Amino acid sequence: MIVGLLLATGGFGAGVFGSLLGLGGGVLIVPLLTVGFGLPFREAVGVSLVCVIVTSSAAAGVFLERHLANLRLGMVLEVFTATGALLGGLVAFLLPERVLAGLFAALLGYTAFTMVQRSRQGAAPVSGPSADDAGAVEPGVPSGPGEGPGAATAPTGQTLADQIAGPGYRPHRLPFGAVGSLGAGIVSALLGVGGGIVKVPLMHLVMGVPLKVATATSNMMIGVTAAASAIVYLLRGGIDPYVAGPTAVGVFVGAMVGSRVASRIDVRLLRILFVGVMAVTAVQMAVRALG
Amino acid sequence: MMDEPMTTPRDARADAAGVERQVARLLVLGTRLAVGLLAIGTALLLSAGISPLATDWPPLHLSSLLRDVVALRPEGFLWLGMIFTIATPLFRVVGSTLGFAAAGERRMVVLGIAVLVVITLAVFAGLLGG
Asked: N vs C: which end of chain A shows fewer Cβ within 10 Å?
């Protein structure tokens, strides 16, 4: 009884934090289950994948209703995140985890450093999706009130970049986005995270999507990404329903709380939180890589 | 002179907003259903005195799933809830694809189908590896 309640409580905390940062909570759930409850890493990954789907689905509904998530951009990148998750699920037992952990730690450290640099330069501290620097308005892109990110017009003749544009921004460097999304899917399948820790900086820093939109869109995409690998884990007997049940219920409640307050949180605070989470996760990965 | 129906930007925006609303509703409903099943399963698990960490978990058998639910066995609700959990974002892709098809956005329809093809491959990969 107590263990079940502890699992639910841990899931609640992971749900709140993951929903606010577009992480899906897996970054917290895997250490919680392995370190806190002594689960084998692979079992923790399986449970975590179920939990991040719950987080994503719960928050994505709210984000879409509020027009914070860019549905079209998400669908474009999901092709690559899902493919990466499938590949990651297939090679999960072939690649040395220490190599991946080391690479991941380096990536997180670099991304955190880059985001801190940009904040110091004052390039992107303005709150609100349409006021973010990375999403400077380009000619021909709709930016009027009432147009959600996914509500951009799509008449014949528009390029894909035009079609996935939102109010005040137009995603660019789509090939980089595709490759990065493939990597995010692989990371998701191997480590049991939603991949938001890769996708949010990718969309924000590389593709020029405002941070709030990137966070919301990443959160929406996590469900499909994690589902692709969760199916592999589920059918191979890698998910414990007795652990997944209470943890996922806790995550759901936490995600609902987090998504309700997300739109009221200043993007600067969100950025500081995100950098902090990346730094902590980088240290965790480095420790794992070193043995 | 023009046989093809014209879609104005205002129509496209309205269609897209409609798709987003429907998809959001689908996600909320699917998640509530999935978590409801998981919550019932968790309550049954705890009331049965089963410690989540001290017991080997029962394997997933689709053939006995409904029987387990009717018999109020925790594993029936937990497995069913997990299946709904995994299926919910996939329902979102299906719903979005149908919505974009209705709005005449072929490019988005192709992308939606591509995602579903990858998911189908994941099912085969899981079955072959299991």
From this structure: C
